[in-house]
Amino acid sequence: MNTVQAVLQVSAKLYQHLTVLPSEDERDNFIEKIHLYLDERGQLIDQLQHEGFQVDLMSKAHATLAELDKGIQGRLDKVMKSIQADMKDLQNAKKNEQQYMNPYASVQVMDGRYYDKKN
């Protein structure tokens, strides 16, 4: 099997893997698998570059690879945005918990002192 076909297969596996976003419990395994596919794909692409690969969009395999790459980028963006949203929710939950535990932390007071200007 040539390198282009190998890249096509790995890209198809990655694209298929990215179709469904996992629940929070399965996210670590999901991300690890993404990393494995991306590493394998990166090694194959490096091999292609060393071989002097030229993209020919008239070739069906090259056109399919270009379409898969666009789809993978879009789905990786969705995964990234999902993770960022969860991180933002977690930050807000921490902030709300701190505010609940100490509601007067942001209030600046003068320690109850009163200055009378009369002599």
Helical segment count: 3
Low-pLDDT ranges: none
Give the helices and strands as they follow along the chain. Answer: HHH
Overall 3D shape: elongated
C-alpha-based Rg, rounded: 26 Å
* Strand-residue proportion: under 5%
Mean pLDDT: 86
Structural class: mainly alpha
- The percent range for helix content is 55-70%
Largest sheet: none
DSSP strand tally: 0
First-last Cα distance: 98 Å
How would you sum up this structure in a few lines?
The protein has 119 residues and is mainly alpha-helical. It has helices spanning 3-17, 27-50, 60-101.
How would you describe this structure to a colleague?
This is Flagellar protein FliT. May act as an export chaperone for the filament capping protein FliD. It holds the Pfam family FliT. Keywords: Bacterial flagellum biogenesis, Cell projection, Chaperone, Cilium, Cytoplasm, Flagellum. Belongs to the bacillales FliT family. Helices cover 68% and strands 0% of the residues. It has helices at 3-17, 27-50, 60-101. It has a domain at 1-19 and 27-77. It contains 3 helices and no strands. The radius of gyration is 26 Å and the shape is elongated. Helix 1 (3-17) runs antiparallel to helix 2 and helix 1 packs parallel to helix 3 (60-101). With 119 residues, the chain is an all-alpha fold.
Q: Which properties best describe this structure?
A:
about 0% strand, about 120 residues, cell projection, cytoplasm, Flagellar protein FliT, bacterial flagellum biogenesis, cilium, single chain
